[in-house]
Amino acid sequence: xxxxxxxxxxxxxxxxxxxxxxxxxxxxxxxxxxxxxxxxxxxxxxxxxxxxxxxxxxxxxxxxxxxxxxxxxxxxxxxxxxxxxxxxxxxxxxxxxxxxxxxxxxxxxxxxxxxxxxxxxxxxxxxxxxxxxxxxxxxxxxxxxxxxxxxxxxxxxxxxxxxxxxxxxxxxxxxxxxxxxxxxxxxxxxxxxxxxxxxxxxxxxxxxxxxxxxxxxxxxxxxxxxxxxxxxxxxxxxxxxxxxxxxxxxxxxxxxxxxxxxxxxxxxxxxxxxxxxxxxxxxxxxxxxxxxxxxxxxxxxxxxxxxxxxxxxxxxxxxxxxxxxxxxxxxxxxxxxxxxxxxxxxxxxxxxxxxxxxxxxxxxxxxxxxxxxxxxxxxxxxxxxxxxxxxxxxxxxxxxxxxxxxxxxxxxxxxxxxxxxxxxxxxxxxxxxxxxxxxxxxxxxxxxxxxxxxxxxxxxxxxxxxxxxxxxxxxxxxxxxxxxxxxxxxxxxxxxxxxxxxxxxxxxxxxxxxxxxxxxxxxxxxxxxxxxxxxxxxxxxxxxxxxxxxxxxxxxxxxxxxxxxxxxxxxxxxxxxxxxxxxxxxxxxxxxxxxxxxxxxxxxxxxxxxxxxxxxxxxxxxxxxxxxxxxxxxxxxxxxxxxxxxxxxxxxxxxxxxxxxxxxxxxxxxxxxxxxxxxxxxxxxxxxxxxxxxxxxxxxxxxxxxxxxxxxxxxxxxxxxxxxxxxxxxxxxxxxxxxxxxxxxxxxxxxxxxxxxxxxxxxxxxxxxxxxxxxxxxxxxxxxxxxxxxxxxxxxxxxxxxxxxxxxxxxxxxxxxxxxxxxxxxxxxxxxxxxxxxxxxxxxxxxxxxxxxxxxxxxxxxxxxxxxxxxxxxxxxxxxxxxxxxxxxxxx
Length: 892
Prior knowledge:
By secondary structure, this protein is mainly α. Among the domains are: 46-100 and 252-314 and 322-342, no CATH class; 119-237, no CATH class; 343-407; 720-728 and 738-891. The radius of gyration is 33 Å and the shape is flat. It starts with a helix and ends with a helix. The relative contact order is 0.05.
């Protein structure tokens, strides 16, 4: 789906932002507005908060795009009512820990966005920032930091030049000699004196009352957090034609800290307070508590007087009769600038429970109880209310304990089912077996040929809709889990046999949808994965026969995409309880597919262990058992256990099953690893498409330094993969093609690498991704200065994955780099490490290749059987090095 379509239901949030931003712009135009007033209340914040995964980050990105360009704003969002001048400048900053954003990066991002608009120095701020940078990062140019951190690619390198210009102008105004870089301290000292004396030469900066104090303060992070005041002052004095209003979108705000650690939050709050002419849109999992008086001392500005727009009254008492009645269509709340999206966050659940019952101002429900209740509630206010009533009931006779609340409430079922017809109840129980469903799937799972009960059920508030999901409907998580697991005392409750029969119907319905995907118009791969995830869970939880899962499994592995498939932990309601041991074929298949998907993120040792456990149970039918053996052998090869891998591959090849061609390919790989190239070539020529013949031929040719023939083979392999619609093989073949062309033609390799990276989009192929990164090192060999640094980082990732073969290839690429640069000492060190890595015999010929590259004699006769003579192979590898040297000299 297009991004515009996916946000057709977000126009209310857009309207909230448009109204708030319009009010902010009118406030800036009022005669009494003073950017240097540090006492006036702040109304420059809008907060969208809600549970994780509900779309806050996507909303933040879409708002940024809509503010940046009218072309990217969905038509249904409507035209904003704010004035055309000053211009609105969106700046989005992801505060997630995974993004590595620290406070310096926050400040730099805002200033960098302003480097293009208004596109001129902001001297008060720029001089302070330059002074801070040289104190905190001595010897590290700002330009290099911006480039390394990716900010230069996003915003360009205008900021360093503007800072230089600001310093030069001030130096000239103060009549200081020398270059700006060498007199920064003198510029700062002289400027402070001139500001104190209010000299005419610096009258432009003298209007900033706090500039001298900030320049005199110790340039640490605390001082940096006050520099936004200078930025706000500079923006306020821009001429009308250059004036801009930054709209700073701070996403994943929960990662700034927690209830006890607010150091980063405190710094960020200063930015918001000190830039009253900017507007801030904050997205996070919880409401912003700055208007709470209780935070006094943890943050600089707190309370409803300081933040009137953030003042939120006690959370509304949820109405038990309306389980999902959390927010109106626009997500508005009484606080005005705090917009709740979806269910309560864990923090808001705890806040509600803490304030719901109090004595002498203290929460009556203690923290351990609140923690358990919050975890069980899934953010549903009805569950919180029922837990409060349970607390009061138990408290009449004894002290409530956490275990009293680690339960589902049968009352949820009673209240959920109370006004449903018998048919609707039947459908509800049936679809509780499914993570998501559509109308036909729900009807078939319920065993009815009538859709009317399904359609009536969809009108209920506990049925959620994602119009752009594979299956658009799902039950609220708490309602679903309660219906499936709580003690059902209703008159029409289901027996274990009823649940099993419903599971069979749902399982069959999923198989029917997958088998007819070619005619249903649903996306095949997406539907396959969705059916597998739900079907595996049903088969495991209810001990069903594998049925259609067998064919679906073969289709899944055939594309080599490896989306995660592991279903959630078993539910309690199964025929024989919830077991964690592998006891059924479904258990074994779940573990097998989970191991295959997770091997892209786990060490190969872990993959071997998991598959060995499955193989030893002998629970899988013969053809799926061979699948586990094949992938076990493949992981063993990655770990360098060639003998064990060869036994497994031979077993599968001899079996003649679906993976026999792949196993013969594996045997060809093992021959190549051992340096037996004639055998590898002979085997490869018998493989055909099913055995990936062309790719294996390319693997053999490039080792002989016959890069053109190898590239042609890989190209043919990619074309064949496209013809057969196998995305993973297509990406792998293209990555290998980029790798071999990187030795001969760096410019051409650029284009091939770009294509490989495009083909990898949406795939989870760790080894192939490593191939592209090694190819980039080969492309840059002899030219780039950071080859060894990049190689060190890549080596760490490879070792985490347990891919011994990739590390050997990485060392080969490094040897090529050292040979081109004629770095004998570095070359000897890398060769020694490579020899140690290949002492078992696999890839032992790599050390021969390194000697060929460098024109060195072999220390001992080579065990490899080359396709041509050893001298011819040596000459080809040496030619690659001499050609790269010529290329490097020409590029200088």
